[in-house]
Amino acid sequence: MLAVAVPKGEAQRVLEELRRKNVVDQNYKIKEVGDKVLIPVKAPVEGYEVVEIELERRERPKSLKECLEERLGKGDWPRSFSVVGDLAVISLKDEELLKYSKELWECIKASQKRVKSLWAKLGTEGEHRVAKLVHLGGEKRTETLYKEYGLIFKVDLAKAYVNPSLSEEHREVSEAVRDGERVLDMFAGVGFFPIHIASKRTATVVAIDLNPNAVKLMIDNIKLNKKKLRGTIIPIMGDASEVTKFFKDKSFDVVIMNLPHKAEEFLNEAKRLAKRAILLYVVGTEEEVERKYPGCKKKGVLDYSPGKRVWRVELVPECWGEA
Q1: Could you say which of 54, 119, 156, 321 has the lowest number of CB atoms within 10 Å?
Q2: Domain assignment of residue 301, yes or no
């Protein structure tokens, strides 16, 4: 079979990248040979050394739905969950499922040996977009360390917004920033965009957030990644609409606005401040977003609801128009 051969020091980063590309063959186990790690893949991967080798076959664990059906019978059971550090989170639209907390915890623990705790997310609440959580099993804590592209983030699911599905988006945006630029992140949270940017570019990032818990975590995360940062991050706790009044026109090359339900309320201020680009995140159908921002580059980054997604709209002076 085929495997990507990488140095041990690069293995975790490459594995994450190959998983995002959906090319890792989960039917076989990863193997260490000398100073290299062999990652099984479904097909040749451009840009990597690919070798043919015999690897040990992996026994496929039951999916969450399969496990629940085995224990509880057929039903409209949850199919997926997310893992943040050593915590698992499952989104439940039906609170009736909370009574199956024991079975949910046992099924997830069976396939995720490193997970120490399981929480149900019943939505978000408050102006800080904090998850409404119910403990289902394991350790009763919401704080953990979480990695993205070799960077370490201290997060607390109960105190600040976290979405591991955005890891690739964090990296992609960081690579779009240029060395020496000034960047404003108006809704920075625990610092995902700023820290990714500062790890890749010699940029200065002003990072604002209204949530004091998120800003405290951001400061911790800057310290945790200090040796990996090439740029400078300036964290500010406050309301972006008030803080930005102190900045002169065209103070920043790039403005990031990742608050999909409210970001457009701040768009005129972002246009005043930005010189090169505004990265605006909005919710809608592809047709709605195209109609509102014709001619602008767009990318769907997250599924939101049937027919709707969270979109990143890249606004440059040529397509700014009126908000």
Answers
A1: 54
A2: yes
